[in-house]
Design a protein that fits this description.
- By secondary structure, this protein is mainly alpha-helical.
- The protein has one domain.
- Helix content is 72%, strand content 3%.
- It has a two-stranded antiparallel ribbon with strand order 1-2.
- α2 packs antiparallel against α3.
- The radius of gyration is 17 Å and the shape is elongated.
- The relative contact order is 0.19.
């Protein structure tokens, strides 16, 4: 799920801190706007835009954090939308809905744990690639 391949160069202290902060943005945003999935995406997106011209290590990890938040946003938006649909009486509580909520919860839990782990490791200068978003980040983020 998480890999530690070597990085092309040794990042400096500033790059390690910014890379770690890119993951922490989503964790802080969870505390602020838990029921609204757009808050995490906005917080990570603002940090991404502010650091897109930084060092490669920082840009790479900001991009990976942004890609993961886009995925989580889509999962959470589906859960919130379906819940509102049911709440206003247009839909009914079904096994599919409960299964989706459980799946969304598990996806969020795994992403939360991976985010904390990655924030700690990148702060120490260790390059961490996530199994799904790492290859996508390599395709997007150039040296």
């Amino acid at each position: 799920m998480i890999q530690h391949p070597p990085f092309p160069y040794e990042p400096n202290e500033s790059e390690m801190e910014k890379a770690s902060n890119s993951y922490l943005m989503s964790l802080i945003a969870i505390m602020v706007g838990m029921p609204m999935p757009i808050v995490n995406l906005l917080a990570t997106g603002i940090f991404f835009m502010g650091n897109r011209r930084g060092g490669y290590f920082t840009r790479w990890h900001c991009t990976q954090a942004m890609l993961s938040q886009i995925t989580i946003f889509l999962v959470n938006a589906g859960a919130v939308g379906w819940t509102i649909y049911i709440f206003f009486g247009a839909g009914e509580l079904s096994n599919y809905y409960v299964a989706y909520l459980i799946t969304a919860f598990l996806i969020n839990l795994v992403e939360f744990i991976m985010t904390i782990y990655t924030a700690v490791k990148t702060r120490r200068g260790v390059h961490v690639e996530w199994w799904f978003w790492g290859p996508m980040t390599h395709a997007i983020c150039r040296k």
